[in-house]
Amino acid sequence: MAEDDRPGYSFSPGPPDDVVSYFDNRGMRPSFSWEDVEPQEHAIAFSVAKAMETDVLEAIHGSLREAIQNGTPYREWARSLRPELERLGWWGRRDMVDPLTGDSRNVQLGSPRRLRTIYRANMRSARAAGQWARIQRTAEALPYLVYLLGPSERHRPHHQAKEGIVLPVDDPFWTQWFPPNGWGCKCHVRQITRREAERRGISQSPPRPTRPVVNTRTGEIRE
Description:
The chain is of the alpha+beta class and 223 residues long. Helix content is 38%, strand content 14%. It has helices at residues 17-24, 39-42, 54-70, 74-87, 112-137, 157-160, 173-177, 194-200, and strands at 27-28, 45-46, 93-97, 104-108, 144-148, 166-168, 188-192, 213-214, 221-222. α1 packs antiparallel against α3, α1 packs across α5 and α3 packs antiparallel against α4 (74-87). The N and C termini lie far apart (40 Å).
């Protein structure tokens, strides 16, 4: 079974409340480009590039919430959502005015490829947020996390270098490296007791280097 055909969750009878609550609490943020949304805002706002109308965002958000709640696989979700997006005029290519420049551009709206990206990104971020909330609640009994690689055949070298790292739940390392870490990342963490952490060997918190990133929309450079 392909990854996208699997349910978003394997929980029974449904996903933890933390997962659904995280998704419910994300405010709508229309945007022309993903770069128009501040990095920190991406964590708390629901945004889809080129989805400038609130009704389009609400349609996508509502369908994803239902998919999270019911464990709906990608193909079933996309098949159900596409007619609504077509009705709203958010499908295929269309001329759209870029609000930053005022120029008209021919852009890609809904497509099977875009829906797959939207589904994967939101399912993974919701799972991660739900897990993080549970980790914070149980940190007294399980005060450490161990970084583990996922089932991918090939791993990013800088992800592979983190395999087996054991650090306290509140170590600053996790603010940058709590997975998923990048597109398609299948890394994960496991919460463990102090005894297991000592048996595995508690790591030194590695440095967290930064690099300059240019926002191609505004030219702004950030670390």
